[in-house]
């Protein structure tokens, strides 16, 4: 362990303080020295990193040597701390903040966010009827420990990693990556561990989950540099591949220095004006750390993972994850999730920086982050259209559901499970585009309106059969709302639909279908409120 | 250790935050409008002209020697003979007799050059004018045309593709290719499942439902949703939808295009042009002839020959050819030397394409390759030249800036020049 520690000291201070050790000649050997050739300084023996476990062990030791660890135990940060901090930053009086949502809305929101589906009728009823004061906290805890949570979020990150990939389908295995991520989330592996494994995987074996980060990028250094920065640091540096970034501080050379980490051998930057001219580039991380020259490609990967994750000056890593999850849960981020410009763009910077710092102190415990955010008042507020930056986080932005959530909603409402594939294609969205910039497509509208499968589900699915048997119109409407929108109808809605049923009493079945069609095609059905 | 420059405030990054809102014209009525605010008077004039482009995409990389640059009597040329065409001095491969008769309206380009030899990358390059780099997805040229020339109030989409194609990239959903799976069929889910009156009742209730939701705090979403549904139902109820089907075409017309899905696809393309759609892509695969080229190719050629020749003749007869650009191309060519399996492999170094209509001067050949087909002897062209030429034909300004989601401005075509002498 001491030996490893010494090696690590050499490895990671190498870029800052001294280079390799030099041999100091002793006077005793002075005469012999003339004949003997000067020995080259020997390479320090590096710990093996053949298996992921060994890589992680090395990374852990590095992490353990970083100063921030010592602060960890003293920090106390709860959902209340978060709420108070935000309230101060937002600086508006309490009346400006939306009220907290009711139990039914909470259940729908939480099930969609954590499990990727709305609650079943049974789950909804049980939650609403439960008199326990701490039931919201308990629901969050229960769902976080379930398989659906890890599956949904495994899929989420797999989509992000593969979104910009143009790799041949036969060279990657998206399912392997998703399964591996799901396994990691279930075991509550730290985000640092997950990232480290993704970055330091060799990219040779597609059926090995983490290798797919490399394979999705074709094992190309430039693409890996751009994607590592985008996915894990939340910064967009791909412009700098060809020229100095016009808005931001990234110089062209820095991009290629980062790419050098991902090359197997030597890395060359092509000339800007003359592409045949090549410059040898040494690996150098965005904040200036350089790995010792004797590290080979595999060790360099571990090195870049370490600089990315553990350098206390690199607050982007923790903050990018925090911002991404926050964005997905609240509908707005503190900044754009994968294209942060100059830091001045970050809103309520103190809050997100602090949340990110505590996330680090908690060893990148992702479930802790979910708990802290979701138990806060900020997360549990009512929806409101956020028009300006001043209103940010005074309410929750109503978000478009992702394709898996839409598919689950349709399935659960109607029992129509064959629309899944069509929905997956039509409702696919880029997870990195902010909610306020997303748009619906005409194909989505056409699908929900006219899909044969969905309409068959409306006409002859279990829900219709259940509703046809209910004689009381009010009860019918209430049941329809509960199954499709997970709430009770308002008085206005109840009147509207019961009178529709009365007007069409001669063809009640068709009238019920009409109502179901309307609810399924409503904005609300595909929105997280 | 580098000094902490993180708080250095650089240039203002205008446009990066909520770029779409910045550019959107705001009101729900215009929610259907394209993302580029180029609704200038000039653009309005262009829309009236109804210029259109039909891209005939030969997927797989058609062999130049078996299409527009035959080398009869040479080892490399193989068994393909050359035939004379209606244009004096222009000869093409023997498998294209019908097209040969239309040659006076077609320009043959023999010397397109490129470096992309992989299907996916080359297809992307030939559709967007940019090589695939990094994370930015460039829009299909069809999406560019749809946003520049398409009427945002049109009943049917402004970019239709029969079969899947490259996406609209950063231009977003408004100009995404509207994919029709099979020629002669309505697009997926476009058909009314119930009588119109019932649909209207449902839509009225839906509007009320969404209105409630808007008041409950989702104003923007609900408004946009309603605009989208309005657009979708306009399409469902539109008489223009018939353009996708073939009812009303005589049996003779249908036969003239050829019975294949491809041929019928070109007929649908002609109908869509008449319905005002500015960009249609029709594709025909089967050109990736790594083996047994002479067995597979002639039949495939026959299909495209018949359809393409009929399309040109048909448009000309209807007086539409001078405003419709036809481009026939694949992602690359094939090796001049036949391989051991009787086929040819990928060859982007020099390959060919056809252009017709929209002012293109037909009946001529542009570019010359060596007798063995291995090198370009005269007028090597690049992909950007093709796009510059297409922009000129469509009267689109290639220097128009498109803006990506992170605020980066990019010209429609970067580099290249209009192919000189191609326009009358």
Describe this structure in words.
The complex is a heterodimer of chains A (529) and B (424). Chain A is an all-alpha fold. Among the domains of chain A are: 2-65, no CATH class; 315-397, no CATH class; 400-528, Orthogonal Bundle (serine acetyltransferase, domain 1), CATH 1.10.3130. In chain A, 52% of the residues lie in helices and 2% in strands. Chain A has 25 helices and four strands. In chain A, the strands form two sheets. A two-stranded antiparallel ribbon of chain A has the order 1-2. A two-stranded antiparallel ribbon of chain A has the order 3-4. The longest helix of chain A has 16 residues, at 147-162. Chain A is elongated, with a radius of gyration of 28 Å. Chain A starts with a helix and ends with a strand. The model of chain A is unreliable at 13-30 (pLDDT under 50). In chain B, helix 8 (261-274) packs parallel to helix 9. In chain B, the strands form five sheets. Chain B has an eight-stranded mixed β-sheet, sandwiched between helices. Chain B has a two-stranded antiparallel ribbon with strand order 2-3. Chain B has helices spanning 19-23, 41-49, 97-101, 119-128, 141-149, 196-237, 251-257, 261-274, 293-317, 383-394; strands at residues 52-58, 82-84, 91-93, 106-112, 159-162, 178-180, 279-284, 324-330, 333-334, 346-347, 351-356, 364-366, 368-369, 376-378, 401-403, 409-411. Chain B is an alpha/beta fold and 424 residues long. Chain B has two domains: 19-185 and 250-411, Alkaline Phosphatase, subunit A (3-Layer(aba) Sandwich), CATH 3.40.720.10; 191-244. Chain B is globular. Chain B has ten helices and 16 strands. Mean pLDDT of chain B is 87; it is low at 1-39. Helices cover 33% and strands 15% of the residues of chain B. In chain B, a hairpin with a 5-residue loop joins strand 15 (401-403) and strand 16 (409-411). The chains are: A mainly alpha (529), B alpha/beta (424). The interface between A and B is large, with 70 and 72 residues.
């Amino acid at each position: 362990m001491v030996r490893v520690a010494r090696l690590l000291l050499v490895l990671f201070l190498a870029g800052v303080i001294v280079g390799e050790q030099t041999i100091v000649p002793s006077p005793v050997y002075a005469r012999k020295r003339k004949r003997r050739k000067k020995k080259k300084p020997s390479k320090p023996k590096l710990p093996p990193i053949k298996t992921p476990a060994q890589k992680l062990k090395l990374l852990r030791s590095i992490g353990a040597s970083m100063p921030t660890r010592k602060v960890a135990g003293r920090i106390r940060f709860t959902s209340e701390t978060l709420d108070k901090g935000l309230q101060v930053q937002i600086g508006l009086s309490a009346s400006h903040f939306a009220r907290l949502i009711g139990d039914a809305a909470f259940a729908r929101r939480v099930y969609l966010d954590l499990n990727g589906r709305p609650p079943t009728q049974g789950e909804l009823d049980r939650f609403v009827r439960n008199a326990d004061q701490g039931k919201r906290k308990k629901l969050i805890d229960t769902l976080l420990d379930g398989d659906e949570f890890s599956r949904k979020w495994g899929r989420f990150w797999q989509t992000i990693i593969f979104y910009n990939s143009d790799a041949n389908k036969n060279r990657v295995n998206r399912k392997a990556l998703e399964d591996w991520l799901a396994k990691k989330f279930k075991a509550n592996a730290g985000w640092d561990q997950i990232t480290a494994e993704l970055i330091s995987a060799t990219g040779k074996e597609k059926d090995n989950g983490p290798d797919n980060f490399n394979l999705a990028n074709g094992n190309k250094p430039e693409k890996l540099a751009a994607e590592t920065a985008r996915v894990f640091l939340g910064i967009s540096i791909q412009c700098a591949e060809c020229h100095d970034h016009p808005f931001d501080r990234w110089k062209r050379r820095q991009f290629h220095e980062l790419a050098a980490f991902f090359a197997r051998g030597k890395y060359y930057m092509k000339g800007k004006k003359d592409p045949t001219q090549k410059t040898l580039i040494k690996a150098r991380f965005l904040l200036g750390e350089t790995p010792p020259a004797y590290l080979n490609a595999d060790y360099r990967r571990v090195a870049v993972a370490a600089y990315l994750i553990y350098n206390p000056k690199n607050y982007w890593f923790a903050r990018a994850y925090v911002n991404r999850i926050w964005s997905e849960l609240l509908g707005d981020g503190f900044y754009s999730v994968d294209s942060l410009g100059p830091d001045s763009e970050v809103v309520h910077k103190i809050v997100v920086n602090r949340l990110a710092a505590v996330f680090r102190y908690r060893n990148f415990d992702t479930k802790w982050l979910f708990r802290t955010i979701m138990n806060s008042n900020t997360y549990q507020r009512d929806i409101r259209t956020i028009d300006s930056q001043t209103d940010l986080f005074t309410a929750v932005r109503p978000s478009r559901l992702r394709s898996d959530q839409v598919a689950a909603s349709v399935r659960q409402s109607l029992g129509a499970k064959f629309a899944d594939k069509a929905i997956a294609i039509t409702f696919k969205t880029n997870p990195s585009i902010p909610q306020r910039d997303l748009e619906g497509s005409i194909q989505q509208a056409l699908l929900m309106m006219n899909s044969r499968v969905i309409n068959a589900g409306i006409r002859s699915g279990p829900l219709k059969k259940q509703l046809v048997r209910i004689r009381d119109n009010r009860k019918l409407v209430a049941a329809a709302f509960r199954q499709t929108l997970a709430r009770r109808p308002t008085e206005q809605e109840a009147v509207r639909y019961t009178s529709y049923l009365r007007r069409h009493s001669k063809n009640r079945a068709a009238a019920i279908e009409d109502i179901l069609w309307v609810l399924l095609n409503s904005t609300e059905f595909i929105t997280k409120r | 250790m580098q000094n902490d420059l993180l708080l250095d405030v650089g240039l203002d990054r205008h446009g990066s935050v909520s770029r779409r809102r910045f550019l959107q014209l705001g009101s729900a009525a215009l929610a259907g409008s394209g993302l580029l605010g180029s609704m200038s008077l000039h653009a309005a004039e262009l829309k009236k002209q109804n210029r259109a482009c039909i891209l005939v995409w030969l997927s797989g990389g058609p062999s130049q020697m078996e299409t527009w640059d035959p080398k009869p009597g040479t080892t490399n040329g193989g068994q393909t003979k050359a035939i004379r065409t209606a244009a004096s001095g222009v000869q093409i491969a023997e498998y294209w007799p019908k097209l040969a008769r239309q040659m006076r309206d077609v320009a043959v380009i023999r010397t397109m050059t490129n470096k992309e030899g992989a299907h996916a990358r080359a297809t992307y390059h030939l559709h967007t004018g940019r090589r695939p780099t990094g994370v930015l997805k460039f829009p299909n040229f069809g999406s560019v045309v749809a946003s520049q020339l398409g009427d945002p109030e049109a009943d049917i989409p402004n970019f239709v593709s029969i079969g899947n194609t490259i996406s609209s990239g950063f231009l977003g959903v408004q100009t995404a290719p509207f994919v029709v799976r099979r020629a002669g069929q309505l697009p997926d889910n476009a058909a009314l499942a119930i009588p119109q009156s019932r649909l209207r009742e449902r839509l009225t209730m839906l509007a009320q439902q969404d209105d409630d939701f808007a008041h409950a705090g989702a104003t923007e979403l609900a408004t946009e949703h309603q605009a989208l549904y309005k657009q979708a139902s306009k399409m469902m109820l539109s008489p223009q939808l018939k353009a996708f089907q073939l009812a009303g075409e005589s049996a003779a017309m249908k036969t003239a295009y050829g019975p294949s899905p491809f041929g019928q696809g070109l007929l649908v393309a002609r109908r869509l042009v008449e319905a005002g759609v500015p960009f249609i892509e029709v594709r025909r695969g089967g050109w990736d002839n790594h083996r047994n080229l002479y067995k597979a190719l002639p039949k495939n050629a026959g299909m495209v020959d018949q359809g393409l020749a009929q399309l040109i003749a048909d448009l000309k007869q209807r007086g539409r050819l001078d405003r419709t650009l036809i481009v026939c191309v694949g992602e690359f060519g094939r090796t001049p030397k036949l391989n051991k399996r009787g086929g040819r492999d990928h060859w982007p170094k020099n390959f060919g394409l056809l252009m017709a209509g929209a002012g293109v001067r037909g009946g001529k050949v542009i570019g010359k390759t060596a007798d063995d087909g291995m090198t370009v002897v005269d007028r090597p062209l690049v992909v950007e030249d093709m796009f510059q030429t297409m922009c000129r034909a469509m009267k689109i300004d290639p220097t128009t800036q498109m803006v990506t989601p992170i605020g980066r401005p990019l010209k429609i075509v970067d580099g290249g020049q209009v192919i000189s002498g191609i326009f009358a």
